[in-house]
Amino acid sequence: MIGLLSGCRLFRMLLVLSEDHKEHLAFLPKVEPAVVREFGRIALEFIRRGASPKIYEGAARKLGVPVEMVQHGVEGLMFLMTESSKHMISEVDFLDSVLVLGFGEELNQILLQLYLQHHSQIRSILSQLPSNLPAYHSLEWRLDVQLASRSVREQVIPMLTMHLLLTKGSDSISRVLQTDPRTLLHLISTLEAALASMKTSHARRILRNIK
């Protein structure tokens, strides 16, 4: 069973941004890189302590733009950073996720550095927030192989049993799942194919034009 698991490639994780989030972030290329970094600092501060309308108003006065534009830009960055940190996406997947925004290389690198520098702290903050969804705690597995039965003397029937433990607040949720290795490998290959399809130029064009 160890050989089976070691042969499985790691899944890729890409963020799919809604049109609202794209619209909120569309403001960033219109300002200087220093302003983007400042927006990033504000977004991270708001993640830690909550939003402050006065900060939005002050930034809007300095830039000479509507308060709503600043608010949307910061909120768009907050969403991008929290979702990326929540799913622990890799550096490559982060850059591929923001590719649909059509930003230049400099802006993409600024966003990437914000994520890489602060994702651990953001995950720590998110872990302290109350959630209605169960969270992963641990997974135990066992591979059983039936070699014979009363009716058939020689046979090989492998079965994978997984014990999934989830937590929800102070409660624990236990789930027992069973499958055969062939089905498990088919599931893995199907998920990998779905994730790979999102990397194609055709899929990227669709994501850019989804309304």
UniProtKB/TrEMBL annotation:
Q: Show the PROSITE patterns listed in the entry.
A: COMM
Against InterPro entries, the record matches this protein to: COMM (IPR017920), Commd2 (IPR037354)
Record-annotated COMM domain positions: 135-202
What PANTHER family does the record point to? COMM DOMAIN CONTAINING PROTEIN 2 (PTHR15857), COMM DOMAIN-CONTAINING PROTEIN 2 (PTHR15857:SF0)
| Name of the protein described by the UniProt record | COMM domain-containing protein 2
Species of origin reads Larimichthys crocea (Large yellow croaker)
